[in-house]
Every structure is written in C-alpha cells, then in structure tokens.
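I am still getting used to backbone structure tokens and would like to learn alongside you. Would you supply a protein for us yourself, any chain you care to pick? Start from the sequence, derive the backbone structure tokens from it, and show both lines together. Go ahead whenever you are ready, and we will take it from there.
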Amino acid sequence: MEKRDYYEVLGLQKGASDDEIKKAYRKMAKKYHPDLNPDDPEAEAKFKEVNEANQVLSDPDKRAKYDQFGFAGVDPSYGAGSGAGGFGGFSGGFDGVDLSDIFGDIFGGMGGFGGSRSSGGNANAPRRGTDIAVQLDISFMEACKGVSHDITVNRVEDCPDCNGTGAKAGTTAKTCPDCKGSGRVSVQQRTMFGSMMSQRPCTKCGGKGKIIENPCPKCSGSGKVNMRKTVSVKVPAGIDNGMTLNVRGQGNVGSNGGPRGDLKVRITVRKDPMFEREDYNIWIDFPITYAQAALGAEIEVPTIDGKVSYNVPAGTQPGTVFRLRGKGVQKLQRNEGDRGDQMVRINVEVPKNLSKKQKDALQAFEDTLEPKNYEKRSSFFSKFRDMFGK
C-alpha cells in the first residue's frame, strides 16, 4: 500500500501542536482498532498506518526529519517494521509505548490490556483534605437573627509527635528504591498487540513513595491522628432549614502540604410555636373578638423584633391578611435591613359558653341588624334566590 502523508493519516495540518497530535491519534486508534472492527483487513491496515504516523509525529527528532526530508528522513527500519507483516506480527511499533490512555478509552479502564488507568499520580503531590459533615440544630429566632455556635468535631490532624511524617521522632522516612518516591511503577506486558507499558501503584511502599522503617508509635506510621476540635461557626441571619453552611479550611488536614478540607454544617431549624416562615416572610395567625372585628380595635402584634401596634379597621372579616413591611427575615447576602414582611392573618373567634343573659343580649342586638349590615350574606342569598326562587 502506498504510503500517505503522516499528517494526512491523522487528519492534521503540518505544524499541528503536540496536544493536537495526541488527540488525533487517540481518536483514529479507537476508530480503527481491530477489536472494534473484527475481520476487517482494511481497518487493521489503517490502524497500523495510524500508529506509524503517531510514532514519527510524536517524536520531536523524527518529526523534524520528516518535516524536512519526508519519508527519506525517517529511519528505514522503523518504516519497514511498522508496515510489514500481518497484525499478529506487528509488535515493534508498540514497544516502549504507553497506550493506557487509548485502551482505557476503548475498554472503559477495565484493565484488559495491562491494567486500568489510575489517577494516583505523584505520591508526593499536595492533596486536599477531605470534608467533614455535621448537623447543627438552632431555634427559629436564631435562624432569623443569626448566631455563633461552637461545634466540636472529630477531624484528622497531623500527628503532633512526628509532625505528620509517620516516622518515629529522631528518624526519617526513606525514599522507596523501587518507585524513586513517585508511588507508581511502570510495568511492561506482552499482549497480542505487542509490548505495552502501564503504571501501577508501587507494591513495595504501597503507593506512598516512602518507606518508614521506624514508625511513630502514636500514629502507627500513618502521620495522621483523629482529634476532637472545637470550631466557632457563625450562622448568618436569614439561614433556613435544610441549608448547608460551608466553613472553609475547617475539615480534615491535607497531605504533603495540601490545604484542609471544609466543614459542611447542615442546618436544622426548630419550629416556633407562634411564627411560621415562608421564604423570607413570616406568617402569624392573630385571634380577635367578634366585637373587635365589628367595631375596630388597636391590637399589639408580636414580631421577631418585639411588639408592634396595629389598628384593625371596623368590619374586618375573618381571614383578612395585614402586611407589616420589613418585619420579616433578613435576606441572605443582601444589605442589612433588606428583609421580608410579616403577614398577619386575622381569625375572628366566635364566643362559646354564653350565659342566658349574654344570649338574650346578643339576640336583641341581632334583631336590630338589617341585610345591609351583612354584605356577604346579602350577596349570597340574592344569588340563592336567583337560582332557586323564593
């Protein structure tokens, strides 16, 4: 088969970046991989062609020679090895090449070709500590006004005896000779596709990169201990039931100088016997007497700020809602004083357990009333008569 330009094989333009070459190679290798195209000689040939192009273009020296001299500038043995023989004999092109990225994409990281990919990375790289989740129970008024609480948590700290090294005081950990401190080792495997390289956690040091010969007795060589700590948490005014407060840097300690995790405080707000919250508004049911509703009255209404006076107008009906502006809950992340309202729902209470004298007085009063005194009642029975007649 006549050789095609290597850039053309990968669908690239001359001058493509290393990252573009890598992405194009992975894409084409997946497309033409024999396991995804069984019994397809053309796909097998294209797979070889893609691999050959990648080996040249991903190598800076070979790529420079190819760009200047074309195929004549490439090592003849490389070209012959990559283009000759059936797929089973095509091994030279894979030797020393780590294809874990490609096969991880094709096989979902199941490890069928030298083990799954791992995100272990450098054992000495800084790692952020994990978060801690706790629950804090507060009162309705504390949620409205804000409050500071001291919370005691169990969290991971650097061992105070060894300062987090894991080694007994006066001793030091040694760099693992197998992985040279990286925590990972390269493993070469021979498969039906040739030799492939993959990386695995170092078994000698357990992926830590260091070997502790004299472990610290307090932390047993882990470098970490569980300790009880008290953290002061400021709960902002306006927080609501079920919200989570994130306290940065108060979680478990990190590794290798990495930052601490966070403390996640989930808020539970106890119900109030009088007030009910709806978003940033507060509702309250206020009972008044029959006479207060009919004649009007000045009442004192409880709010989260204390008592306020309100004039109930004469003829107020049951279920009427009055609004006290700015007497609700402080809005989160808004200017102080930016609050919801308090809604006052009026309940007219009908008196019970009347004496004979009271009943007679009420009946005498009722006898003095006319239809015009009852607007809703008059309207209702007018419709009633229209529907059913007298």
